[in-house]
């Protein structure tokens, strides 16, 4: 996932009309959340937040959990294919609460990154799986919840990798900016010791930290530049690639302008003594230490 990439309430019928309302698992969304949706003047929920279906055989998914989640909720095509600019922008505004301009920037960046990794590709649309073929650009080492491509090229959620990240977050029920900055850095350092080809180039640092900033901006509440994410929401999202609506989450509005400030704060608050960049030689040295 890249950031930018690397995630409005429309007039709509009652959510009860949707056949997959409540999720594929059969768990129903709380009546409180349904009531929030029905209050069209204040709710940021959309009917598709209540529509969830795990990917089916042949559906396109990739290394970005936010893109996968938007497909699982049908904000973008459920098959994850032929995603074009205007529908993508609408999906990000409705599903993630992003501002129009920030969503447009993410789309243009994603398309450019895919073209960089695939020079012969000349397209105005993309499939989610194409993000997988961008190692070091969009897909990268040190993922929060996926093994490095050196060990597993599938981009599948990996419980052990995610558990390692969580171990650095401690027991707090809330995840704040300093806590995530600390956990992300130490998690990457831990992963670098196992992967002799582990690499994070200087140009990738704001990209990778930007992913974390996006998580804070989308799922966090409170101060816009120092939000706190409910840990239960955070874990639910990563484990299921489903919006945690049933746990009480609702989208923010106009997310985007604050992301740059969050990125800078996370870089500044990363733990001293833990590198932000890595080379294969440094990874090999860490493994030998």
From TrEMBL:
Belongs to the chloroperoxidase family. Keywords: Heme, Iron, Metal-binding, Oxidoreductase, Peroxidase. Its cofactor is heme b. One of its GO terms (molecular function) is peroxidase activity. This is Heme haloperoxidase family profile domain-containing protein. InterPro entries: Chloroperoxidase, Chloroperoxidase-like_sf. PANTHER family: HEME HALOPEROXIDASE FAMILY PROFILE DOMAIN-CONTAINING PROTEIN-RELATED (PTHR33577:SF19), STERIGMATOCYSTIN BIOSYNTHESIS PEROXIDASE STCC-RELATED (PTHR33577). Residues 48-268 form the Heme haloperoxidase family profile domain. Pfam families: Peroxidase_2 (PF01328). It comes from the Eukaryota. It comes from Marssonina brunnea f. sp. multigermtubi (strain MB_m1). The keyword Repressor does not apply.
